[in-house]
């Protein structure tokens, strides 16, 4: 997502697969200033990759970690932009219920819903 909460790219993954496995693909070819994500993305390798690109990782550490990383709480509040985008995208029934059986068709409808939201 951009700083305005607008999508920059989509990666479609199986529902049973962890989202963090696709984080390197999302960062490929991008030099982010800030990466904001939830605790599900708390992995030292991912944080190191973000920082190696010169970005700031605003990812809270999981409670069971011995060393807790400090994050900028004000920047973390901007994560709700992503949640609000998906809430609006799910207003389109085909995106919310995933009627499409083929991944490429579903991804096309996600792109179409995004375009409709961008045009508002």
Give an overview in words.
The protein is mainly alpha-helical. It has a domain at 1-72. It is 42% helix and 5% strand. The protein has six helices and two strands, in the order αβαβαααα. The chain has helices at residues 23-27, 44-52, 73-76, 80-89, 93-97, 103-119; strands at residues 34-36, 56-58. It has a two-stranded parallel sheet with strand order 1-2. Strand 1, helix 2 (44-52) and strand 2 form a beta-alpha-beta unit. It is globular, with a radius of gyration of 16 Å. The protein starts with 22 loop residues before the first helix and ends with a helix. 8% of the residues are buried.
Provide keyphrases for this structure.
120 residues, mainly alpha, 42% helix, globular
Q: What is the 3D form?
A: globular
Figure out the total of helices: 6
Alpha-carbon distance between the two ends:
17 Å
Ranges with pLDDT <50 over ≥5 residues? none
Listing every helix as H and every strand as E from the N terminus to the C terminus, the arrangement reads HEHEHHHH
Strand content: 5-15%
Percent range of helical residues: 40-55%
